[in-house]
Amino acid sequence: QKEVEQNSGPLSVPEGAIASLNCTYSDRGSQSFFWYRQYSGKSPELIMSIYSNGDKEDGRFTAQLNKASQYVSLLIRDSQPSDSATYLCAVFALSNFGNEKLTFGTGTRLTIIP
Amino acid sequence: DTAVSQTPKYLVTQMGNDKSIKCEQNLGHDTMYWYKQDSKKFLKIMFSYNNKELIINETVPNRFSPKSPDKAHLNLHINSLELGDSAVYFCASSPDRETEQYFGPGTRLTVT
Questions:
Q1: Per-residue pLDDT for B66 more than 90?
Q2: For residues A32 and A91, what is the distance between their CA atoms, to the nearest angstrom?
Q3: Is B31 or B2 the better-scoring residue by pLDDT?
Q4: Do the beta carbons of residue B87 and residue B60 sit within 8 Å?
Q5: Which chain A positions have a beta carbon within 8 Å of B58's beta carbon?
Q6: Which of the pair, A2 or B5, is modelled with greater confidence?
Q7: CB atoms within 10 A of CB A66
């Protein structure tokens, strides 16, 4: 089982609609969760972090965390063409050095259709 | 500008050569990382240093050797380059070990 799983997409959403991105993780002890956005040819950019169960809102973005279900999601309201990118879910998991390492999913490619 | 910077941005070289990539951060962070993003866009950690101490060393061939001269710099030296080393290499930094990470612009390595 992959440590962090995402639907690779592509996910197409009309402009102005809500885009919903999902992620599941395998390490039940994980405590820190992040969403990164990566435009083609660019580096990952941190857009949200969440540490507690429930919702966390930042502008048009809402991260949702359910540790019991090992599930984290990202909602993008009023989607804009500039939101078209690959979204990477990242979770801290134990490394082979005994420290925590940030483990990324394979990413979901989101396309906003004007 | 405060940022994570990497040099070079592009690196084209032949099999068997040795090359280095440099990374610097002026964010005052304690922890730095090297990631590899392959052609399928999967981003995987290679190494991490915290205050110049190696804290993560994933299953990476020992042709790859990181070096951190101080906590603001982390370099990556690669010996005997192979075709499979072609990828984008990202440097990142974070305030501490298990906090949010900020990425540099990446170095696209092409081995021919």
A1: yes
A2: 6
A3: B31
A4: no
A5: 95-96, 101
A6: B5
A7: 12
10 Å CB burial of residue A86 (0-12, 13-18, 19+) is buried
Structure tokens at B64: 């790859």
Residues 6+ apart with CB under 8 A from A98: none
Choose the closest CB to A107 out of B41, B97, B99.
Answer: B41
Q: What pLDDT shows up at residue A2?
A: 66
Tokens 């998991």 appear where? A93
Closest Cα partner for A13 from A108, A80, A59?
A80
Give the closest of B40, B48, B103 to A43, CB-based: B103
Are residues A106 and B40, on separate chains, in Cβ contact within 8 Å?
Answer: yes
Q: Which of A27, A51, A101, A109 to mutate to test the interface with B (most CBs of B within 10 A)?
A: A101
Which whole-number Å values give the CA distances from B24 to A105, B14, B28, B77, in the listed order?
A: 26, 26, 10, 15
CA distances from B22 to A15, A19, B74 (A): 40, 37, 6
Which of A93, A92, A74, A65 lies closest to A18, judged by CA? A74
Chain A nearest-CA residue for B42: A106
Measured between alpha carbons, how far is A53 from A38 in angstroms, rounded to an integer?
25
